[in-house]
Amino acid sequence: MIDRKLPEEVERDAHACLQCGYCNFVCPIQLNPGLGWESYRVRGKMYHVRKYAHPGLLGRLTGDRARMSEEFVERVYNCTACGYCQVACHVEIEFNDRWEQLKEWFVKNGIGPLDRHKVLRTRVIAKHNPYDEPHERRGEWIPEGAKRSKNPDVLFFTGCTASYRQQKIAQDTTRVLDAAGVEYDILGTDEWCCGSPLIRTGQTDVVTDEKDGLVKHNLAEVEKRGAKTVVTACAGCFMTLSHNYPIYAGKLDFELLHMTQFIDRLVSEKKLVLKSPLDTRIAYHDPCHIGRHFGIFEEPRRILRAFPDSTYIELPRNRLDSQCCGAGGGFKIQFNDRAEHIASLRVEEAKNAGAEMLVSACPFCVTNLDHGARRAGIEMPVAELVSLVADSVR
Q1: Are 209 and 203 in contact (CB under 8 A)?
Q2: CB-count burial class (<10 Å; 0-12, 13-18, 19+) for 351
């Protein structure tokens, strides 16, 4: 029996929705052929939620009420958590939080998540990462000669993707920290998944468990190191630690920075000097999790302009209006073809703007944009910003 009582904030905002449809024009999901139906759009989903919560007198009398069908659940999970709908919303509905709360309600009522999302939960419980990789190998990416400190001022929260799939990003981050003389360390095998893929898919019980949840474990390990600052090169980790952890555990006891913010600070303080030029036309793709959600727009652009003789071009859609790469919100693991199609359109946009290289500051964006370039048949390298910095300071 499904509980008809929706989360209070979800029900409230379903009624607050004006049904104006501005959000429909910015959602990246509808860029996929065949997904232009209203049921895939934010407005349509909010309308259905409202009708479910309050079917009206006729609906109550006839029993003809909106249902949480498999089709509707699937529509809700067709979301990249990009937050563009929030930017377009005239009543400032925080859609990302509402969708996550609704997905959590799905899970509690046994109608979510989708099949491939369930695997994430199993893997994180068993091996503390969503990739089914051995946990004992989490810190093996650390390069030989990395200058780790026993009394670090800075702790590098590596994240699962950089630890297992995009190890060059993790290695290049330590090279940047070494070049700047930063006293840092990593958690290694004491680091668990931040919980982002589970939160985005509604599987929060593993994240918030008071005994051995991800939040409690990771915050305890950070506290043991005594570092005043935590940095991460993963936009997903940054979003989770910045936004979700305080919801579950209260205000953080340390300063949290994305690596673009930290590198920008190091460059401005003359602790890091970019020496090698960028001899190609570079465009920057704003990751949704650090861009639209936290306003980290100018830091990566200042870094790119700090390279000697650099040629930086701005994409037509940028900053708050940046087009999502398609990888976030648990969307890529369930709907990979759709995610890559969205990414291919972004790469085409970069090519048409005259870019020769696309740069981002998120391992998920880099991965999916690279897949999108292949899908579109466009020979355009996709690079991680921290790696360009590492190459320039060696």
Answers
A1: no
A2: middle
**Taking the alpha carbons of 44, 46, 51, 52 in that order, is the dihedral positive or negative?**
positive
pLDDT in tens, 157-199: 999 999 999 999 999 999 999 999 999 999 999 999 999 999 9
The 3-state DSSP class for residue 382 equals: strand
Angstrom distance (rounded) from CA 245 to CA 213: 11
**How many structural domains are present in the chain?**
3
* H helical segments located in 226-335: 235-239, 245-249, 259-268, 298-306, 331-334
Question: Looking at the domain assignment, is residue 3 inside a domain?
Answer: no
> What's the domain range around 306?
274-393
Closest CA to 320 of 283, 298, 295: 295
In a shared domain, residues 252 and 389: no
Please tell me the predicted confidence (pLDDT) of residue 394. Answer: 78
What are the φ and ψ backbone dihedral angles of 382, each rounded to 5 degrees?
A: -115, 120
Between CA 245 and CA 191 the distance in angstroms is 15
> Which residue, 156, 132, 99, is CA-closest to 330?
99
Instruction: Among 266, 285, 306, give the residue marking a domain's end.
Output: 266
Token couple for 111: 């109608």
Asked whether residue 72 is domain-assigned, the answer is yes
Q: Can you spell out the DSSP letters for 357-370?
A: EEEES-HHHHHHHH
Q: What is the mean pLDDT of residues 218-235?
A: 97
Write down the H helix ranges in the chain. Answer: 8-16, 42-53, 56-62, 70-77, 84-88, 95-108, 115-127, 160-164, 167-179, 196-199, 205-208, 214-225, 235-239, 245-249, 259-268, 298-306, 331-334, 336-352, 363-376, 385-393
